[in-house]
């Protein structure tokens, strides 16, 4: 109960602030996304033992700054080039060792997430897409937690995350998609069934991102990614599902005809 109380207080403070910045968009949102992904990368590097190496961390943070600046300026293809260069430098700095590859994966993952969040917010219907994403991910997280504790049952992946259950995962899927649907309804969009199905997919990927972080922490014998947020652990513990879901949403948009400058422009659920 003490842990749950801390989680609630943290969410009550940080949630409205994130929503306000997401609503405003522009430079404030870019700064927030950059800060979140930089902290995400910092914790990733610490987990995989790359923080002390120096150069991988420097390459990673420089890559994030380059990606943010290039996308903000409208040079999206160059952002991809900067991302690849940063990951390559990380591998070279570790002379091909495992630490370098793990660090490079963190650079790729955090930089792709940063780019995805920026593209989702600034594109056509940016408010709809970013609030839809936040609603699905946040409701999924909360619903999975309470549904799993209430119903229990078979474990989802006990070797990686002993507390997660199939009941929690299914509850997160359903309620997460309904949460996204609520955002769509408030903002006056059509295509209810299509948005619900899309929400199910985003929720599933969000939970996959959570499991991915759990697998990495277990691989390196780490319980929490950090202690930045009371009751939640590190920033990586808090946004693991969001970064995975953002990347998926952009790839989905590109698959259905969106452009690199506005990946969701090809999606028109009616």
Tell me the strand order in the biggest sheet: 1-2
Radius of gyration: 18 Å
Taking pLDDT < 50 over at least 5 consecutive residues as the criterion, the unreliable ranges are none
Shape: globular
By DSSP, the count of extended strands is: 2
- How far the N terminus sits from the C terminus, by CA atoms, comes to 43 Å
Q: Give the structural class.
A: mainly alpha
The overall pLDDT, averaged over residues, is 88
Quick structural overview:
The chain crosses the membrane at residues 12-41, 53-72, 101-120, 126-146, 166-187, 242-261. With 270 residues, the protein is an all-alpha fold.
List the helices and strands and how they pair.
Blueprint: H1 2-24, H2 26-48, H3 55-73, H4 76-93, H5 98-122, H6 126-151, E1 155-157, E2 161-165, H7 166-186, H8 192-219, H9 235-255
Antiparallel strand pairs: 1-2
Helix pairs in contact: 1-2, 2-3, 2-5, 2-9, 3-4, 3-5, 4-5, 5-6, 5-9, 6-7, 6-8, 6-9, 7-8, 8-9
Note the main attributes of this structure:
76% helix, transmembrane helix, lipid biosynthesis, phospholipid metabolism, globular, phosphatidate cytidylyltransferase activity, mainly alpha, membrane, 270 residues, 9 helices
Report on the structure:
This protein has 9 helices and 2 strands; from the N terminus they run ααααααββααα. It starts with a helix and ends in a 15-residue tail after the last helix. Helix 1 (2-24) crosses helix 2 (26-48) and helix 3 (55-73) packs parallel to helix 5 (98-122). With 270 residues, the protein is mainly α. It has helices spanning 2-24, 26-48, 55-73, 76-93, 98-122, 126-151, 166-186, 192-219, 235-255, and strands at 155-157, 161-165. A two-stranded antiparallel ribbon has the order 1-2. The model has no long low-confidence stretch (mean pLDDT 88). 76% of the residues lie in helices and 3% in strands. The protein is globular and about 50 Å long.
């Amino acid at each position: 109960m003490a842990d749950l109380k801390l989680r609630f207080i943290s969410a009550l403070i940080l949630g409205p602030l994130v929503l306000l910045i997401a609503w405003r968009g522009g430079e404030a949102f870019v700064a927030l996304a950059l800060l979140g992904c930089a902290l995400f990368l910092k914790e990733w590097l610490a987990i995989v033992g790359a923080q002390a190496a120096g150069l991988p961390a420097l390459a990673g943070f420089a890559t994030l700054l380059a990606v943010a600046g290039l996308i903000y300026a409208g040079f999206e293809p160059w952002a991809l080039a900067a991302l690849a260069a940063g990951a390559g430098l990380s591998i070279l700095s570790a002379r091909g060792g495992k630490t370098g590859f793990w660090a490079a994966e963190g650079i790729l993952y955090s930089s792709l997430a940063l780019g995805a969040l920026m593209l989702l917010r600034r594109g056509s219907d940016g408010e709809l897409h970013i609030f839809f994403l936040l609603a699905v991910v946040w409701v999924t997280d909360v619903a999975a937690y309470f549904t799993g504790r209430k119903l229990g049952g078979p474990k989802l992946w006990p070797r990686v995350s002993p507390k997660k259950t199939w009941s929690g995962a299914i509850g997160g899927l359903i309620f997460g998609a309904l949460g996204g649907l609520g955002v769509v309804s408030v903002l006056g969009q059509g295509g209810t069934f299509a948005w619900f199905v899309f929400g199910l997919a985003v929720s599933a990927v969000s939970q996959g991102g959570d499991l991915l972080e759990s697998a990495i922490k277990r691989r390196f014998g780490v319980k929490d990614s950090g202690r930045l947020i009371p009751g939640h652990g590190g920033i990586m513990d808090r946004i693991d599902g969001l970064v995975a879901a953002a990347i998926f949403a952009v790839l989905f948009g590109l698959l259905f005809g969106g452009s690199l400058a506005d990946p969701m422009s090809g999606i028109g659920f009616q």
